[in-house]
Amino acid sequence: MSDDAVVRPRPEAVVTLRPASGARIEGGFWGARQRVNRDVTIPLGARRIRESGAFANLEAAARGAGGEHRGKVFADSDVYKWLEALAWERGRADSDGLARAYEEAAGLVAAAQAPDGYLHTHTQLTGRERYSDLASSHELYCAGHLMQAAVAGSRALGDDTLLRVAAKFADHLVKDLPADALDGHPEIETALAELYRETGVRPYLDLAARMVTGRGHERLPLKGHHGPGIRQDRVPLRDATTVEGHAVRALYLAAGATDVAAETGDGDLLAALTRQWRDMVATKTYLTGGLGSVWYGEQFGGPHELTPETAYCETCAAVASVQWSWRMLLATGEPGYADLMERTLYNAVLPGLSLGGDRFFYVNALRVRAGANPDDRRAAARGRQDWYGTACCPPNVMRLLSSLGHYLATRSEDGVQLHLYASGTVRAGDVLLEVRTGYPWDGRVEIVVRETPERPWTFSARIPSWADGASVNAEPAEPGYHRIRRAWRPGDRVTLDLAVRPRLTAAVPRLDVARGQVAVERGPLVYCLEQPDHPGVIVDDLCLAATPGLRDGAPIAGLPAEVVPMIARGRIHAHRDEDAGFPYRTAAAPREPEHTGPVDLTFVPYYAWANRGAGPMTIWTPMH
Amino acid sequence: MSDDAVVRPRPEAVVTLRPASGARIEGGFWGARQRVNRDVTIPLGARRIRESGAFANLEAAARGAGGEHRGKVFADSDVYKWLEALAWERGRADSDGLARAYEEAAGLVAAAQAPDGYLHTHTQLTGRERYSDLASSHELYCAGHLMQAAVAGSRALGDDTLLRVAAKFADHLVKDLPADALDGHPEIETALAELYRETGVRPYLDLAARMVTGRGHERLPLKGHHGPGIRQDRVPLRDATTVEGHAVRALYLAAGATDVAAETGDGDLLAALTRQWRDMVATKTYLTGGLGSVWYGEQFGGPHELTPETAYCETCAAVASVQWSWRMLLATGEPGYADLMERTLYNAVLPGLSLGGDRFFYVNALRVRAGANPDDRRAAARGRQDWYGTACCPPNVMRLLSSLGHYLATRSEDGVQLHLYASGTVRAGDVLLEVRTGYPWDGRVEIVVRETPERPWTFSARIPSWADGASVNAEPAEPGYHRIRRAWRPGDRVTLDLAVRPRLTAAVPRLDVARGQVAVERGPLVYCLEQPDHPGVIVDDLCLAATPGLRDGAPIAGLPAEVVPMIARGRIHAHRDEDAGFPYRTAAAPREPEHTGPVDLTFVPYYAWANRGAGPMTIWTPMH
Predict the structure, then answer these.
(1) Residues on chain B touching A378 (C-beta within 8 angstroms)
(2) Exposed (0-12), middle (13-18) or buried (19+): which is B458, by Cβ within 10 Å?
(3) Of B482, B497, B512, at which residue does a domain stop?
(4) Residue of chain A nearest B512, judged by CA positions
(5) Which residues 263-282 on chain A approach chain B with CB closer than 8 angstroms?
(6) Do residue A586 and residue B303 have CB atoms under 8 angstroms apart?
(7) Of B49, B79, B92, nearest to B403 (Cα)?
(8) In this structure, are residues B151 and B195 in contact, taking their beta carbons and an 8 Å threshold?
(9) Catalytic positions of A, written as ranges
(10) CA distance A254 to A326
């Protein structure tokens, strides 16, 4: 287990926590997801990316001639993200097949690079002037994903094929990129910071810092009906009080800015990012952790604009959110960042991938109604798709799943911190921990100390914010980090009970779209009502009884046996004849629906929805 | 008062009602709106359209040379709609100024026409091949608006300048338009039908019918991420069960199809349109009558997808809805069509225009929150605008206001029907009625028979669906048409009391976005809470008390003295400290907000909002 952290601050960086030296997920919930990712999703990605023409673009660029470019201007980035996933995957457990695929693609990338270091096949093949349309060309966005793949290859494999390509490109950028150049789509900022961390070449960090600082002065040309905020170019990040504009762009930029703040010790910038993160969580985050409520521009909406059915919640935004929160967690050590990461991983990243690993959601609605127009391309009712013309999300999930182990734990002068729970091992310096758990189905987590120095150190475990009644070694534990400082011996155990039980969740009054409704959760999982479990009635008409008696149910045919559904007492809204016409009536008070019933409602984890066909679904359920 | 109906079925058309020969609004609510339209909006439109380059395009086309085209491909239609408004306005009361403006512009249009009858300045100036990109070019859309202006000029003024241009263009289309040609934006269908009605040239109707029938077979190329439904090309209109896609396009098409059904006696088509209208009203119509809930594609959403804050409700869609419902009313005589027209006129068309007549809303939100991002170009929080780059809405309101009198009344073999109430006179054959009313502020409407034949006939007056407790001549009257058949004498009176009183309105259970909330209405007007009336607290936090004691208030500074505000007892949601963080909490039931209070809430008519600055506003208010 090498020191292959996915984010690795320099020794001089101002951070509270540093990544564990290594962590490996073995079995359990996430182990199964990693296996599907390795066996199905990554190989499928290779085929789909080949079909999209992205490899052909690199081959054409390698031949040095111009010619047709296939797919989107950012097609290269699909290859890079998939390569990053391959690198992390090989770091977990190499195979001849993985090695061959990686080496072939990495070699192709190297061959496609221009002699001076530049690499962007769309620009190279079409002959467009470099950097002449940075607002839309995604040249630096692609460069960023190349750098991230290169860092992964170097850290996970000790392979420098891509690192040399990335460094040569970065050197070119440091030397030749026009001053004040900004890419319309942030991404390179965090990548340059990480490339600096991997290589020690300070100008990479300086360039990242310049791009972070240069944003927010309305330098980028406007696009469509959008203002400068869509590309985070309205307000300097240092002055901003909230996140705005295109969600993925905003989150990648915030991640990069957090890297820059850590490496430069810029406390003002970190304070600004803290403010923005808090406002995002308080006013712009769906219950699932999903981000971005507006289809038009794939962007953040206004505060509390969190309509379930029109949620955008791009899978990439969830990945980017995990990346940002992880960096904030390293910087500050505050548990809220890990709370959001966990919520997001289970309920906003994972729904982007089918249980079989071969179908995808780009957009993640929190409600689908009966009667959704099949022609409405927004409609989640159309179900998961095989792939996308803009295929940013699938390889983003691949690389996150492959590297997930790196997000479980951190270390500090003081000791070791466990943030996320999965069966496996965690190495932090001279400490080695073994983790055994049936989480998230079961709240019990057993940690066994396998190696330890003789000096005392502090073991910290995050008690999730929802874990009312949690305990550590049978003693009550409050949400936040539960710390145990002592001298440890090999074989010592810590037993957590994270109080994984069914619960109902409601929203604050300003969140009007959830008014009169509750959500069902169990541990870190958000649940939903889905049509296949309710034949003969439509989900739109179901409501919870006032005393719902929420309880675990038996396994459901068509879902993996491990999935624990939840059952509750409910009712069915009756339709009065008058409801068939204009849907508004004079009434002395809000309408209380008449209902029939009782019926049993079945809730399934949201991440598992749309695996038994597409159809109505809701996370929020009325209750009365 | 000539027989200048805005829609005039041929004698052989299969319709239940026919337009009154003429109607004139004199004073009162709508008289004031017509005066502002004449004195402010129409002259302002001339300046703005000139500034946009639309006149310059016609001038350049008239010179016969190619050259730069300014503005959008549909810029010509702004001129045509404004000309249509001018024609109706001159029909109401001509002036030298209006006559000069009309003649100059009409002459320019005539001069711009190509020798063979074709006219579309964008195509003429850029040299693009005619009809080569009908999905996007708006060539026939513009032709349709030209035809409507021409019909208005002929009917209102007896002027055939534009009618000759339109007929020549239509002749050209009948002869030379490629078979199966469809415009991406319907409009020409209803225009061709009306041009047929005005000229008797049957091939115009046949072409309209062909276009109505030809739609729905996926012939138009796809656009962006949209399916064929965005342009009503997924399902033949005859088979469709609901409206779908771009709202304005769907509604113009439906209006044209209704014209075709009436003129050809196509009962199946009318039945299909009836089904679609009913589904639209039951599942896709905002309380205001506004239509189109989706920004992306300016389109209808799914059933009950009627989120207040992201309502699109394009002002043009409201105008188009009035046009369609009027045609359905003529075809069927059913009161629901007039109910929707009235609701739409007051609450979806009128909000598109400022009280001063010089500022506009293209999109009409039903809720604006505090803290809306000023960079969010969707935000109604930005307030009304001076004009729009796509300026379809302002001249659409102009032409509807100028011709509004034509929508008040109809006649049949049996008698005369009053559908909408405004002070003025109605001529229907040998019947002349005088109407006096303070409506919508006051529910009393007095109708005086000024001229009548000796034979008995039936007077019908629509009792609005909300008018609980209405009376006619002091006798209780139910919603729908109240009919009085007898022999009438000059001087006879009918007195309606339409029970204009404050009331609360709630939504059916499936309309979840209004859950736990009510709206305030008074007569035909929908009211809203607006920020200027609630200093020191934000509208987002206001709620109605369970016994609100809704009552009329005193006039409000900054609004016209006639506007009756409504006052109710309310409370202010208290913010608990915990509400500052992640906005979801474990709770046994939906969260009942704590509140302080009582406070007085002030509701103003929705059409009058955003005339005292922009800011938070809501039509739906929580109540508990």
Answers:
(1) 294, 296
(2) middle
(3) B497
(4) A513
(5) 278, 281-282
(6) no
(7) B92
(8) yes
(9) 298, 392
(10) 11
Q: Does B512 touch chain A (CB under 8 A)?
A: yes
For residue A287, list chain B residues with Cβ-Cβ distance below 8 A.
584
pLDDT in tens, B170-219: 999 999 999 999 999 999 999 999 999 999 999 999 999 999 999 999 99
Question: Could you give the strand order of the β-sheet that contains A457-463, starting from the edge strand earlier in sequence?
Answer: A18-19, A409-412, A415-418, A457-463, A480-486
Q: How far is A587 from chain B (nearest CA, A)?
A: 5
Residue B392 designated active-site: yes
Q: How many Å apart are CA B389 and CA A384, to the nearest integer?
A: 37
Note whether A431 and A414 are same-domain residues. Answer: yes
DSSP for residue A156: I
Q: B476 with B548, same domain?
A: no
Per residue, the 3-state secondary structure of B152-186, as one string, reads: HHHHHHCCCHHHHHHHHHHHHHHHHCCCCCCCCCC
Instruction: Kindly tell me the burial class for residue B582, based on how many C-beta atoms sit within 10 Å of its own C-beta (0-12, 13-18, 19 or more).
Output: buried
For the stretch A294-303, pLDDT in tens is: 988 999 999 9
Q: Which of A61, A58, A37 minimizes the C-alpha distance to A49? A: A58
- Given pLDDT bands bounded at 50, 70 and 90, which one contains residue B390? very high
B427 domain-assigned: yes
Residue at which a domain ends, from A407, A436, A454:
A407
- Decide the pairing of beta strands A566-573 and A542-544: antiparallel
Q: Which two tokens stand for residue A394?
A: 């699938």
CA angle A515, A511, B594 (to 5 degrees): 75
Indicate if ipTM > 0.95.
no
Between the CA of residue A160 and those of A55, A116, A155, A191, B397, what are the distances in Å? 20, 18, 9, 16, 66
CATH number of the domain to which B479 belongs: 2.60.40
**Number of domain units in chain B:** 2
Which residue in the block uniquely carries the two structure tokens 């809220």? A336
Q: How many residue contacts between A and B have a Cβ separation below 8 Å?
A: 247
Single-letter amino acid, residue A336: G
Record the tokens describing residue A607, joined without a space: 């991440």
CA B76 and chain centroid, separation = 21
Q: Is residue A229 one of the residues assigned to a domain?
A: yes
Q: Which domain holds residue A448?
A: 409-497
**What global pTM score does this model have?**
0.94
B248 SS3 class: helix
Residue A56 lies in a domain: yes
Report CA torsion sign: B132, B136, B137, B141. positive
The reply to whether B506 and B618 lie within a common domain is: yes
Contact A358, A346 (CB under 8 A): no
User: Among candidates B13, B87, B609, which has minimal Cα distance to B355?
Assistant: B609
B197 in Cβ contact with B8 (< 8 Å): yes
The 8-class DSSP code of residue B349 comes to: I
Together in a domain, A355 and A469: no
Q: Are residues B465 and B521 in the same domain?
A: no
Q: Do B303 and A510 touch (CB under 8 A)?
A: no
Say if residue A437 is in the same domain as residue A373.
no
Length of chain A: 624
CA angle (B595 as vertex; B592, B601 as ends), nearest 5 = 115
Whether the CB-CB separation of B285 and B292 falls below 8 Å is answered with no
Q: Quick check: A408 and A420 in contact, CB under 8 A?
A: yes
User: Is B521 considered catalytic here?
Assistant: no
Find the largest Cα–Cα distance for chain B: 76
Helix axes A42-52 and A393-402, enclosed angle (nearest 10): 150
Nearest to A341 by CA among A420, A396, A459, A277: A420
Per residue in B82-119, pLDDT tens?
A: 999 999 999 999 999 999 999 999 999 999 999 999 99
Q: How far does Cα A62 stand from its chain's mean position?
A: 33
Quickly tell me which residue has 């970065």 as its tokens: A170
Cα B75 from Cα B141, distance rounded (Å)? 11
Considering the domain boundaries, does residue B604 fall inside one?
yes
C-alpha torsion B194→B195→B196→B199, nearest 10: 130
